[in-house]
UniProtKB/TrEMBL annotation:
Keyword ATP-binding listed: yes
Annotated keywords: ATP-binding, Nucleotide-binding, Transport
Protein name: Phospholipid/cholesterol/gamma-HCH transport system ATP-binding protein
Organism: Thiocapsa roseopersicina
A Pfam match: ABC_tran
MF-aspect GO terms: ATP binding; ATP hydrolysis activity
Domain ABC transporter: 27-263
Cleaved signal peptide residues: none
Domain of life: Bacteria
SMART domains recorded: AAA
InterPro entries found in the cross-reference section: AAA+_ATPase, ABC_transporter-like_ATP-bd, ABC_transporter-like_CS, P-loop_NTPase
């Protein structure tokens, strides 16, 4: 195997091997393939996400990051393999168990995905109204609290069109946290943001990890974000349609034996 070639992924090991070094991973992928219909986008994905880590799914455009994300958040069944949360196989579970699990996973979508006709508070309250039996006054309290966590308590009555793109993303984070998830998924959080707003969102992700202790899974190809927030990562490759490596991105930038990964993490300039 050439150290520079995108050949067999060094860490795509069977379940019985190195992944077990991670005691009690929060999320575990075991030989997962994802794609659409007969078309495979990524195959043989085997890695663990440690509890409380910020874990980044990275790779070039079209490598399948969002596709993998869809399988992790319950929108797209994998073509093969297992995805385990707390040791339980998500896609093998009964529908009502899957639904219960999905409620424990918060998702922040790329656009923020807010309802334009609702105030920020109403947007954050929506999952509480849908999935809990809380009284109206309690829902109000929780929604205001979540907006305060993302620094927007003064904007509860604003509409999405009245705030900036960075603030809308924060509302998306507040809504993703509404049901006190123990895993938070972020799809391209910095997309469309200026560098300063993107940096503030990175800071927010780290603050929330500290204060909530949640596990964060982030899809991004923004290098500044990757180095700012990631404890651990997986690199997906479009050409070989599989993962090339896992690890802390700073370590990978310096020491990864695969040139493609080093080039990606240093913008091609070493
Ligand atoms: N609904 C779909 N049906 C069929 N193919 C799809 C669908 N969505 C995405 N694809 C294809 O899957 C491949 C991976 O796309 P995906 O969006 O997962 O990549 P990505 O790494 O997230 O890309 P980017 O960084 O550009 O957002 C692409 O070739 C894309 O055309």
């Amino acid at each position: 195997m050439s150290p520079d070639g995108p050949t067999k992924p060094p860490s795509a090991a069977p379940l019985s091997e190195p992944i077990s070094e991670q005691a009690d991973p929060h999320i575990l992928l075991d030989a997962v393939s994802v794609g659409y219909g007969e078309t495979v986008i990524q195959r043989d994905l085997s890695f663990g996400v440690r509890r409380g880590d910020v874990f980044v799914i990275m790779g070039g455009s079209g490598s399948g990051k969002s596709t993998l994300m869809r399988s992790l958040i319950g929108l797209l069944a994998p073509q093969a393999g297992r995805i385990l949360f707390d040791g339980e196989s998500f896609w093998d579970a009964l529908q009502h168990e899957r639904t219960r699990r999905m409620r424990r996973n918060g998702v922040m979508y790329q656009s923020g995905a807010l309802w334009s006709s609702m105030t920020l508070e109403e947007n954050v309250a929506l999952p509480l109204e849908q999935y809990t039996n809380l009284r109206r006054s309690q829902i109000h309290e929780v929604a205001v609290y979540k907006l305060a966590l993302v620094g927007l308590s003064a904007y509860c009555d604003y509409y999405p069109s009245e705030i900036s793109g960075g603030m809308r993303k924060r509302v998306g984070v507040a809504r993703a946290m509404a049901l006190d998830p123990d895993i938070l998924f972020f799809d391209e959080p910095s997309a469309g943001l200026d560098p300063l707003s993107a940096r503030l969102l990175d800071d927010l992700i780290l603050e929330l990890r500290e204060s909530l202790g949640a596990t964060m899974v982030v899809v991004t190809h923004d290098l500044a974000s990757i180095f700012a927030i990631a404890d651990d990562s997986v690199f997906l490759d479009a050409a070989t349609q599989t993962m090339l490596t896992t690890g802390n991105p700073r370590d990978l930038r310096e020491h990864c034996e695969i040139k493609l990964v080093r080039d990606f993490l240093s913008r091609g300039g070493e």
